[in-house]
Design goal:
Rossmann fold, about 350 residues, binds iron/sulfur cluster
Length: about 350
């Protein structure tokens, strides 16, 4: 059996992200001069409590996968701090980072692409053990079998190659590999996006089972808002490299505050008939601006149905506008802009919804 160490969902953060910034330089001209930056992630801050699942959602290209990679330092962050279990991963030396790796792992989107086609299943799952332990072969094999049992893979398949497995089984291999070193924190980067719908729930249930048994903490990145609703405790909505809203799951799905979150969620099937009856589909016009040239003010001002003058010049800060609910929008944080009654008035407008 895997070492069961259930950790109750606590209010103490295992992961603290402060001002995480990931800019990719643009070089152009014959002299390859640095002419700008793609601001893929632009000052993102959040925490994830031990044993919690934070969902990270947004449209393609909003920077959510880049956040996941920068958190585990698969990319070198341009700025910011990423404190995981008390250590700032963003500033660790290469050797210290290597020692830290076992505690933080990733489950990738495409199990086909993330598994070496020339390695057998036991070598794939055992690779982190080769890298980070000096265990004897017999002990490693025991651990590999234990992991295969835990994720529902038959031990008889240990010497098979990735192409001999289905998509769902390949994702189970990826999960077993991520669990090999007994991590505390796992970034799940669109772990079900490449799977058939019929298999998706099985993989999500497996991730939930593993979390319960092992007390894991997840960042669950997905564009599938229905699946995030199922698995996440809190949800952060990203737009153009920034967090627009971060709220407890039920609050967000029942009453999104940020106009972008409201538009995004208006397209999701609502199981509660009372909420569904009030909700109207919001179709946003216009395209997402380029992350190389974001708007001067609020990133969402070019598409926001509730845009105000201040939105075009002043960037809104992410601020707590209700207990546990963080929103980056002048409707809530700038009382003069939102009217004399401030946020409550804005909230009321939000509840009424706007359609375009
Ligand atoms: Fe819309 Fe302004 Fe709020 Fe941005 S700050 S989401 S543009 S109302």
């Amino acid at each position: 059996m895997l070492d069961a160490r259930p950790v109750p969902k606590s209010a103490s953060p295992l992961v603290q992200v402060e001002g995480l910034t990931m800019h990719f330089p643009i070089y152009s001209g014959v002299l390859r001069r640095h002419t700008g930056d793609v601001k893929a992630v632009d000052g993102v801050s959040f925490t994830i409590n031990a044993g919690e699942t934070l969902g990270l959602v947004g449209e393609s290209g909003c920077g959510k996968s880049t956040v996941g990679r920068a958190l585990l330092r698969l990319y070198e962050p341009t700025a910011g701090r990423v404190i995981i279990d008390g250590e700032d991963v963003a500033s660790l030396s290469p050797e210290a980072l290597r020692k830290k790796r076992p505690t933080m792992q990733m489950v990738f989107q495409d199990p086909q692409a993330s598994l070496n086609p020339r390695m057998t299943l036991s070598r794939i799952i055992g690779e982190p053990l080769d890298e980070h332990t000096d265990w004897a072969e017999a002990k490693k094999l025991d651990r590999i079998h234990e992991l295969m049992d835990a994720v529902g893979l038959n031990r008889r398949f240990a010497n098979r190659f990735p192409h001999e497995f289905s998509g769902g089984q390949r994702q189970r291999i990826g999960i077993a590999r991520a669990l090999a070193l007994d991590p505390k924190f796992i970034v799940c980067d669109e772990p079900i996006a490449a799977l058939d719908v019929s298999i998706q729930a099985q993989v999500v249930n497996l991730l939930e089972d593993m979390q319960e048994k092992l007390g894991l903490t997840y960042l669950f990145i997905s564009h599938d808002l229905s699946m995030v609703r199922h698995i996440a405790d809190r949800v952060a909505v990203m737009y153009l490299g920034k967090i627009a809203e971060l709220s407890p799951r039920d609050d967000l799905y029942a009453r999104p505050l940020h106009p972008y979150a409201e538009a995004l969620l208006s397209a999701v099937n609502e199981p509660d008939p009372a909420i569904a009856a009030k909700r109207r589909r919001i179709i946003l016009s216009g395209d997402v601006p380029s992350p190389a040239n974001p708007p001067k003010g609020c990133n969402f001002c070019t598409r926001c149905p509730k845009v105000m003058d201040i939105c075009r010049t002043v960037k809104p800060d992410l601020a707590e506008v209700e207990p546990g609910r963080l929103v980056a929008c002048h409707l809530y944080t700038n009382t003069s802009a939102a009217g004399s009654t401030g946020a409550p008035e804005a909230t009321e407008r939000n509840q009424q919804g706007e359609t375009r």
